[in-house]
Automatic annotation (TrEMBL):
<feature type="compositionally biased region" description="Basic residues">
    <location>
        <begin position="453"/>
        <end position="466"/>
    </location>
</feature>
<feature type="domain" description="DUF1996">
    <location>
        <begin position="37"/>
        <end position="283"/>
    </location>
</feature>
<keyword id="KW-0732">Signal</keyword>
<feature type="region of interest" description="Disordered">
    <location>
        <begin position="453"/>
        <end position="474"/>
    </location>
</feature>
<dbReference type="Pfam" id="PF09362">
    <property type="entry name" value="DUF1996"/>
</dbReference>
<feature type="signal peptide">
    <location>
        <begin position="1"/>
        <end position="21"/>
    </location>
</feature>
<dbReference type="InterPro" id="IPR018535">
    <property type="entry name" value="DUF1996"/>
</dbReference>
<protein>
    <recommendedName>
        <fullName>DUF1996 domain-containing protein</fullName>
    </recommendedName>
</protein>
Amino acid sequence: MKYHLASGALAALSLAGTANAFWRMPCRGRTALERVDPIVDPGKISSHAHSVQGSGAFAESVTFDDLRSSNCTSCQVTQDMSAYWVPSLHFMYANGTTVLVQQDGGMLAYYLLYGDDPKAFPPGFRMLAGDPFQRNFTGLAVPDPAKPWTGKDVTQDALRLKALGFNCLHYSVNPPEGTLYRHFLPDKDFLDENCSDGLRLELMFPSCWNGKDLDSDDHKSHMAYPDQVITGDCPSGYETRLVSLLYEVIWNTQAFKGVDGQFVLSNGDPTGHGYHGDFITGWDEDFLQSAINTCTSESGEIEDCPLFNIQSEADTQLCKAEVPEALADDNCEGPNPTGICGGVQVQYGPAYATMGSSNSSATATTAPSYTGSTPLVPTLSYQTSQRSFASDKYGGGVTIEAVTGVTPAPSPTPVTTELIGTTTFTSAGAVYEVAIEEVDVYVTETATATAAAKHKRHLQRHHANRREHGLLAQ
């Protein structure tokens, strides 16, 4: 089976400080599913569960040296002993019983090389993105205004809210929505009707560092977002640009189509506004800096970096962290008739959540309610006119919105695949063609291309009846 893609050939950089080089770190295994968070709750049991990828040394308290000393990682590059974690997604039946939603393909951690001279994470560096207590999107337009953003849209508070993405996947109908396009969790009716291939949760971490602190009291204030979240300029006091980190996790929400209930994150959040993630570096700093300087392929594939030692997906599944004795009977995977593990309450907001525990009830504590312009049921239309295809076999892919005012790249010719038929997408902004897929693909370059390039990769489908492709454009 082959995809025949036609797109602009690496159009000239249209934004100061942008880059077209990156790699996508596949962490296919899950190191742990447990109520542990060594950043927020060091040395004790966390209030809610996390899906953890990376070093097998993950624990209630963990240091850089601990991560480095592990004999395994659930990521495919064996030099990466970092720890990556996000709240797990659960389905709550009408009677309050919860089960874990299947996580398709583990996690993808994107290392995006933005900035003039991005730096490696120093030893001991850690950070948190998102706010587990957030339940609203007050004061900001839905959908986002066209870039470049200005005014209230570039405050750090606004950028943090916009660093979350809930990407509806339905390959037989439309290409996926753009990265960080929708900033809240669609309700179940919308997911059932529109997202036949699941939901891709996305989290962008801040990449602007104050240049001195490895952590901070809130685990955030030593970092800041550039003014366009992924791209753009760093604010004063945070001029050191680190390698940019973005998480993707795909959840098989379609498995619950037609079933009475709701989806809820492990921190008791059914809105998505409280999605968050944590990172502790486990890279050798010099090695990571060499990878940043050397691994500048436009494919995003780890196989195209000569420095990486790559293990099989099967081996990533073998790396497991030790379960704390206090959690031996914790039932986070379910079925759990008492609700979310840890007894976390479901809180809709819009008020700031308390994340209190209550084992006496597995029902929502507050009726669905929103303030401002955010609707409970998303009504955003699909914006495909500024995007071109690239894909990962599990449905991963990054889309970075074009900024107005740049010179348009030539329009790509129609995209034809055996899976979705023939359709046409026109690029109104500068288009990057970046193949981040494992498919048999022929790429015909336009714009500055002088010859056609043939790229062939093997597609392994994660479901016999699922269709795989993602997006990437700038």
